[in-house]
Each structure stands twice: as structure tokens, then as C-alpha cells.
Amino acid sequence: MIKNENILCVSYTSWEGKYTKSVVQLMSLLARENKVLFVEYPYTIKDVVYGLLGKNDSPALRILGLKKRLQVKKTSFGTEIYNWVALPVLPSDFIKNEKVFRWVIRFNAFIYRESVKWALMKLKMRNPVNVNAYNPYYGLSLIGKLKEKANIYYCYDGMNTERQGNRAIALDQEFSRKVDSIIVTSDYLKQQKDRLNSIVDTVKNGVDFPVFHKAAKTAPHNGRTRKKIGYIGSVDQRFCLDFVEYAIRKLPHYDFEFVGDVRNHIIQERLSDYPNVKFFSPVEPNIVPQLLHNCDAGIIPYLPNEINKNVYPLKINEYLAVGVPVILTKFAELKEFEGIARFTSTKEEFLEALISEIENDSVEKINARIEFARGNSWENRAELFSDAMEKAIGGK
Known about the structure:
Layout: E1 6-11, H1 22-30, E2 35-39, H2 45-52, H3 60-63, E3 70-74, E4 80-84, H4 98-122, E5 129-133, H5 136-142, E6 150-155, H6 161-164, H7 167-178, E7 181-184, H8 187-193, E8 200-202, H9 209-213, E9 227-232, H10 241-250, E10 254-259, H11 265-271, E11 277-280, H12 288-293, E12 297-300, H13 314-322, E13 326-329, E14 342-344, H14 347-359, H15 363-374, H16 378-395
Parallel strand pairs: 1-2, 1-5, 2-4, 5-6, 6-7, 7-8, 9-10, 9-12, 10-11, 12-13, 13-14
Antiparallel strand pairs: 3-4
Helix pairs in contact: 1-16, 4-5, 5-7, 10-14, 13-15
């Protein structure tokens, strides 16, 4: 594991939240031997207003400087990281005119960059290793401005062109060419980034195995009259509604439970009409293992489209760590899970796999899933991430 480094993580996410975030897990573990500064998502003035009105979870008072921008966060791994909230920037995604958009981005980048430099100075963090977590917009403005040892792009998803337009792809590609190395989370992403940078490493998502293993099943729920199918995570545009609705309709004696934010309300409207369907609000990550323990199967029904080819779902290892059967659509190349999870291409296959995996579950299969997930712990992933960071530093 890399040691005695100053690690700056410029993130496109917040530290807090209802879902497990790979960057949070990895930085928490790297903090065992290094000083880590995690810079929050670049909040906008709009985020401040909505936060004050209670319409979102943004830390409005910290953004405004009315509470400490710099805080120490204790992690689930027993480590501590420094957490910084930068000055607010102007909203930009809605801007259609490219010249105006570029001007706003340059202005925002200046504000963000100076705020990051102030945090580094305050913590006396010199020559940081700059890990940019899916934030190329602001990453471009930081390259060469921090006397950094290396610039590493942690790219864990494809760019969202629906929200940010084709400009997102252009900025992502420009940033990918300029950094010292890229770390990706899927084989498909690696294929894309290999065209843009000579050093690309794959570190796939993991699982907090000790936490999930505490809730692991020891045997199938054979005594149940009604089987339970679980889904943990956002219900959004990735979701394959047709497959899931078909299974719900054909299995009225099975209960389907969805836990997470509903971002595509058409899905909830259609599925809520079925008496064997329930939707629940997001829960804290430490509650998820017990919810999965009570399930007879877990599903990951994503649409097989271009954006989902980038995905290595966090939840697959979480399902397996508890021992539940996993049924997926063939939305991405996840060859390492063949034989341990069921992949389906049609709604009929999806239905058959659900029935078969539940009805034919066994103690042996449960134990095999758990042992497979053990090898995908966040500790193991952090070691790989550390190796990739050392390669970038050495290459520089």
C-alpha cells in the first residue's frame, strides 16, 4: 500500500450519502497510511438556495462559510480524512451557447482552484498526488497548478450526455489525454481510455465484506410461502422496466421490493399498481446487508445500451456477500461473474432465471457466492488502486 503521501481527491460526489460510493471507500482505506483531503462536489449557487429551502441535501451553511469548510470525517474503516467544501460556483449545465459555457467554466474553475489551493495550504499538504474522481470539468484547471506529484483520473462511469451534452465527451477526452494515468472500473471503460492514454489500470468496485458477511445467509428461506425479490439502488433511466414488469405480472406469489431513490417516476407509476410491489426510500449503507439477508434473490435489471456498457455495479458484490442469488440483464461485459450469477437477454429468460435460482438455491451455492465476494473486498481493491497510483507517480 502506498505510504506517506499527500493525496488530494477532487470528487464529483459528496462524501455523505445514502449509497456506497467507491471513491469514499477507497480514500477511507488509503487514509490508513496517507494524509487524504477529499474535496466535495463543486456546489453551485442553485445548490445553496435549494439546501436552505430543504429541497436537497447540500451543506448550504458550509458552502457559504457559515460553518467550517474544513472538517475531519471518521470512516467505517477506522480512519480519518479531511473534507473540504469549496466556494459556490455558477450553474452551467443548462447553458446552450458554447462560448458562454466555456466562459462560465473558466470562471468557475478559477473559484474552485483557488479554494482547493487554500485548503492544501491550510493543511500544509505539499506536492499532492491529485486523484480526480470523475470530475474532468474542474480537473483540467488543476493540472500543473498544485505542484502535484501526479494527476490520476479515476473514471468510474461514462459521461452523461443526456444531462451535459456532447461537450461532456469532449472535455472528458481532453482531460484523459492530459493526465499521467487513468484508473477505470470496467473492462469496457479500459478499452475506451486505452485510446487516449498510455497508462490505464482497471480497479473494479468492491464490497465492505466484513459488514455484509455479518448478515450472510446460512441457508435458503425454504419455509416461506411468498418469495422476496430485492433491488437496492436508484430506480432511474438505466432500469429495464419491461423485463421487471413481465416478471412481476407472471409471479403474483412473489414480492418485489425496491429500496432507493426513484428518479424515473414512470417506473414507479407503472409498477405500483401491482399488489406484490413495494417501494421504499433509501436507507443508510449499514442497513443494506440485513435487507438483503431477507431476500430470496437480488436483481440488477439494467438496459443493454451504450452508457450501461461502462457499468460495473457496486451492488453485485454486495448481493453475493450476503449469499443471495443474483439475476442480471446482459447490459455489460462482466465475465468474471459467469457461473456465479445469472445473465439474461430476454424477459422470458429473466423470469425463468428468477424462478430457477430461487427454487434451486442451496447451502453450497450460498457459500460459493460468499467466498467469491470475499475476494472482491474493498481492502483488496484499495491495494490494486494503490499499485496503480504508484505506477503513475513512478511514470512521472
